[in-house]
Specification:
Elements: H1 2-9, H2 13-45, H3 50-99, H4 102-108, H5 110-135, H6 137-152, H7 154-157, H8 160-201, H9 203-208, H10 212-238, H11 240-264, H12 270-312, E1 333-340, E2 350-357, E3 362-367, H13 373-378, E4 388-393, E5 396-397, H14 403-409, E6 410-413, E7 422-423, H15 424-428, H16 437-446, H17 450-455, E8 463-464, H18 473-487, E9 491-495, H19 503-516, E10 521-525, E11 537-542, E12 545-550, H20 552-558, H21 560-567, H22 572-575
Parallel strand pairs: 3-10, 3-11, 6-9, 9-10
Antiparallel strand pairs: 1-2, 1-4, 4-5, 7-8, 11-12
Helix pairs in contact: 2-3, 2-6, 2-12, 3-5, 5-8, 5-12, 6-12, 8-10, 8-11, 8-12, 11-12, 16-18
Length: 576
C-alpha cells in the first residue's frame, strides 16, 4: 500500500501540505477551547466577573469560527486530493491492462481486473479521504490532549496510563483478526463479478438449456459466501464500538470520582476538572476516530495489494529497446519454423510452421477444429509471441517492430465480431478517424452491408449497442469487415469472418474483396471450403503442423488431409 500511495500521491504534495496545516489549525483550536472554558469558570463564574465571561465568550466564538473554517477547507482539499488519486490509479491500471497480452489478461481474469479497477480503487480512495481528515487530526489531538491534560493536573493524568493501553489492545486484536477476512472478501467479490458476467454473456444459452434455476443457485452460492464473510467481519467490529464506549464511560466515571476527591481536598479548581475531562474525551475520541481508520485500512491494504499486482506485472509482449522501422510496409508475411505453446502447456500447439503470404495474393488457412488456425494468425499482430522460430513482416521479425507500427500495418477481423456502443459510423471509424462518409459507404458496399445500414434509422448514425447486440450475427460480421477495410492496412486477417454469411453474400463479398485488396496481403481462416477454393495459396494444418501448401487443384492431388476436409463438405463434382 505504501508504494501505491507514494507513487500516486507524490504529485499532490502541495495540497497535502495545505491539508496538514489546516488540520493543525483545527486541532489547536479544539485544544484551546477547553482551556478558555476553564478560565470562564475559574475567573468568571466563581468570582462573578461578568465582563471577563463576556470577553472570553467572544474569544471562544472566534476560535470556534476559525475551527469551522479550517475543518471545511481541510475536508475540501482532502476530498479533492483523494478523488484525483483515484482518477490517476484507475487510469494507470487501465493503461497497464491495455498493454497486457492475452497471457497476462488470462492470468488475472476479466472479472478480477474489473474489480481491481473499480471496487479496489474505491476502497483505497475512501481510506485516503479518511486519512487526510481523521488520521492526521487524531494523533495531533491525542498528543496535544495528553500535554494539555498534564498541564491541568498531573496526578489525575495517571489514569491515561491505564485507559489508552486497554483501548489499543482491543483495537489491535480486532484488526489482526480482520485482515485475512478482508482479503477473502475481495476475492469473493471477484467471484460474484465472474458469475454475473457469465450469466449476462450467456443468457441465451442458459435459457436454451433451461438452466435458469441452476444459474440462480450458482449466483446464490457465491452471494451467500460473500455475505457470510461480510457478516463475520461485521460481527467482529460490532464488538469494537460497544467496547470502546464502555472504556470511555468508565473513564469518565473514574475521572469524575478522583477529580471530585481532589476538588474536595482543595488540590484542583473545578474549572480545571471540567477542562481535564474535555481533554480526556478528546484523547479518547481521537483514538476512536483512529479506530474507524483501523476498520478500513485492512481492507484498503488488501485492495492496494491487488492493484499493485496489476501495476507491477510486466507484460510478456513489449516493444524492443531499439525497434526496427519499416518506411513503407509491403505486407509480406512469413512464418519460419514457428513453434508455439501456451503458458504451462506440455505440448506445443504449433510445430515447425513455415509458409509465406505474398502481397496481392490471398492465403487461406484450413484445418480441422483445434488444428491451430486461429493461433497462427494471432501470432502476426503479436497477441501471442512465438515460442520458437519467427514470424516476419517484410523480412523483419515482428518482435523487432514497435507494436503500434505493427498494428498499423495489420487489419484483423476476429472470429467473434465485436462492436462498441455508439453508432455505425463511430464503429467504422475505429481504425481511421479521418475516414469520410464516402469512405464508410465504400467499405460497407464491399462488405455487403450498404443495404441494411441504409435501411437502419439514421443510416451511418444509427445506434449500435455494446457488443452489437441490436444487429444480427451476419450484420455484425459485415460491419467488422467494413471496419477493417476503412483502416486500409497492408495485411488483412479474416479469422473465420464469413461463417455467419449465407453462400451468396459470402461469394459476393469475396469477389468485391479481391478487387479492393489487389496490392495487400490477405489471410483467411475458414472452416467452409467454398470460401477458400479460389485462394492463391492454401495452407493446410493438422494437429498444429503444416501438411500441405498449394492451390486447390494441387492439394486435391497431393494432400490427403485436404481431400478429407473437401469431401466432407462438397461432392466430387463440386470439388472439381
Amino acid at each position: 500500500m505504501r508504494k501505491l500511495l507514494t507513487t500516486y500521491l507524490a504529485p499532490y504534495r502541495a495540497q497535502l501540505l495545505v491539508v496538514i496545516v489546516l488540520l493543525t489549525v483545527q486541532a489547536v483550536a479544539n485544544l484551546y477551547l477547553p482551556n478558555l472554558n476553564a478560565d470562564i469558570i475559574n475567573n468568571g463564574v466563581v468570582k462573578g466577573n461578568i465582563g471577563y465571561i463576556a470577553r472570553t465568550g467572544v474569544l471562544m466564538l472566534g476560535v470556534t469560527l476559525l475551527l469551522a473554517v479550517a475543518a471545511i477547507a481541510a475536508t475540501f482539499f482532502a476530498s479533492r486530493t483523494a478523488m484525483a488519486f483515484g482518477r490517476d490509479v484507475r487510469g494507470a491500471v487501465f493503461r497497464r491492462v491495455l498493454d497486457f497480452s492475452a497471457v497476462e489478461t488470462n492470468h488475472f481474469g476479466a472479472p478480477s481486473l474489473i474489480t481491481r479497477n473499480t471496487n479496489d480503487v474505491q476502497q483505497v480512495q475512501m481510506v485516503i479521504v479518511m486519512a487526510l481528515t481523521v488520521m492526521i487530526l487524531a494523533p495531533i489531538m491525542a498528543v496535544g490532549g495528553v500535554f494539555m491534560a498534564l498541564r491541568e493536573d498531573v496526578p489525575l493524568s495517571s489514569l491515561l496510563v491505564v485507559i489508552i493501553p486497554v483501548m489499543a489492545l482491543v483495537i489491535g486484536t480486532l484488526v489482526a483478526r480482520a485482515m485475512p477476512l478482508f482479503r477473502s472478501m475481495q476475492k469473493k467479490i471477484d467471484r460474484i463479478n465472474q458469475v454475473m458476467r457469465e450469466n449476462l454473456s450467456g443468457i441465451r444459452v442458459i435459457r436454451a438449456f433451461v438452466r435458469t434455476e441452476h444459474e440462480e443457485r450458482r449466483f446464490d452460492d457465491a452471494n451467500a459466501d460473500l455475505t457470510e464473510t461480510s457478516l463475520r467481519v461485521n460481527r467482529l467490529f460490532a464488538l469494537m464500538i460497544p467496547s470502546l464506549f464502555a472504556i470511555l464511560n468508565l473513564s469518565t466515571v473514574a475521572i469524575l470520582w478522583f477529580g471530585g476527591l481532589r476538588i474536595n481536598n482543595g488540590e484542583m479548581p473545578i474549572g480545571n476538572l471540567l477542562a481535564f475531562l474535555q481533554y480526556v474525551m478528546q484523547i479518547l475520541f481521537s483514538v476512536m476516530m483512529a479506530t474507524v481508520m483501523f476498520v478500513m485500512v485492512p481492507r484498503a491494504a488488501a485492495s492496494a495489494e491487488r492493484i499493485q499486482q496489476v501495476l507491477d506485472l510486466e507484460g510478456t509482449i513489449c516493444d524492443p529497446e531499439t525497434p526496427v522501422m519499416i518506411a513503407e510496409p509491403e505486407g509480406r508475411v512469413e512464418f519460419r519454423n514457428v513453434e508455439f505453446r501456451y503458458p504451462g502447456a506440455q505440448e506445443p500447439v504449433l510445430r515447425d510452421v513455415s509458409f509465406v503470404a505474398e502481397p496481392g495474393k490471398t492465403t487461406a488457412i484450413v484445418g480441422s477444429t483445434g488444428s491451430g488456425k486461429s493461433t497462427v494468425v494471432n501470432l502476426i499482430p503479436r497477441f501471442y509471441d512465438a515460442t520458437g522460430g519467427s514470424v516476419l513482416l517484410d523480412d523483419v521479425d515482428v518482435r523487432d517492430l514497435r507494436q503500434e507500427d505493427l498494428w498499423h500495418a495489420v487489419g484483423i477481423v476476429p472470429q467473434q465480431a465485436f462492436l462498441f456502443s455508439g453508432t455505425v459510423a463511430s464503429n467504422l471509424r475505429y481504425g481511421s478517424d479521418d475516414a469520410t462518409d464516402e469512405d464508410l459507404w465504400h467499405a460497407l458496399s464491399i462488405a455487403q452491408g450498404q443495404q441494411f445500414v441504409s435501411e437502419m434509422p439514421g443510416g451511418l448514425e444509427a445506434p449500435i449497442d455494446q457488443g452489437g447486440t441490436n444487429v444480427s450475427g451476419g450484420q455484425r460480421q459485415r460491419l467488422a469487415i467494413a471496419r477493417a477495410l476503412v483502416k486500409r492496412p497492408r495485411v488483412y486477417i479474416f479469422d473465420d469472418s464469413f461463417s455467419a454469411l449465407d453462400f451468396k453474400t459470402d461469394s459476393m463479398l469475396r469477389a468485391a474483396l479481391r478487387e479492393e485488396t489487389t496490392d495487400a496481403t490477405v489471410l483467411i481462416v475458414a472452416q467452409r471450403v467454398g470460401t477458400v477454393l479460389n485462394a492463391d495459396q492454401i495452407v493446410v494444418l493438422d494437429a498444429g503442423a503444416v501438411v500441405g501448401v498449394g492451390t486447390h487443384p494441387e492439394l486435391m492431388e497431393t494432400c490427403e488431409t485436404y481431400r478429407e476436409i473437401v469431401f466432407s463438405q462438397l461432392t466430387a463434382e463440386e470439388a472439381a
